[in-house]
Amino acid sequence: MSDLKTQFEQAQKDVRKLTKKPSNDDLLALYSLFKQGSDGDVKGSRPGMLNVVDRAKFDAWAKLKGTKAEAAQKQYIAKVQELVKKLG
């Protein structure tokens, strides 16, 4: 198992242990970086206007189109580390 993959998996565990809920912007960043790092570029069609949450998640992920999985994983790890320091 690669070192990056191990760190990415550990970050997924660490984010679940946060003592406070991250802001919506932080949650969208975590979601989009995780999806880009694990699934690659966004797939499917954009959700409709009435589906606000899924539309925001889709748009956040779409902004990362073309980002390599390894780069997204590194950014996800850094974001989790930042949130652990900030939120505990």
What topology emerges from the helices and strands here?
Blueprint: H1 3-15, H2 24-39, H3 52-62, H4 69-87
Helix pairs in contact: 1-4, 2-3, 2-4
Account of the protein in words:
- The protein is flat, with a radius of gyration of 13 Å.
- With 88 residues, it is mainly alpha-helical.
- It has helices at 3-15, 24-39, 52-62, 69-87.
Descriptors for this entry?
mainly alpha, 88 residues, 4 helices, single chain
Residue fraction in strands:
under 5%
**Topology as H/E string?**
HHHH
Can you give the helix content as a percent range? 55-70%
Q: Structural class of the helix and strand makeup?
A: mainly alpha
Tally of extended strands? 0
Unreliable runs, pLDDT <50, ≥5 residues? none
- Dominant shape: flat
**Largest β sheet strand count, sense and barrel closure:** none
Rounded Rg = 13 Å
Mean pLDDT: 96
Q: What is the straight-line distance between the termini? A: 28 Å
How many helical elements?
A: 4
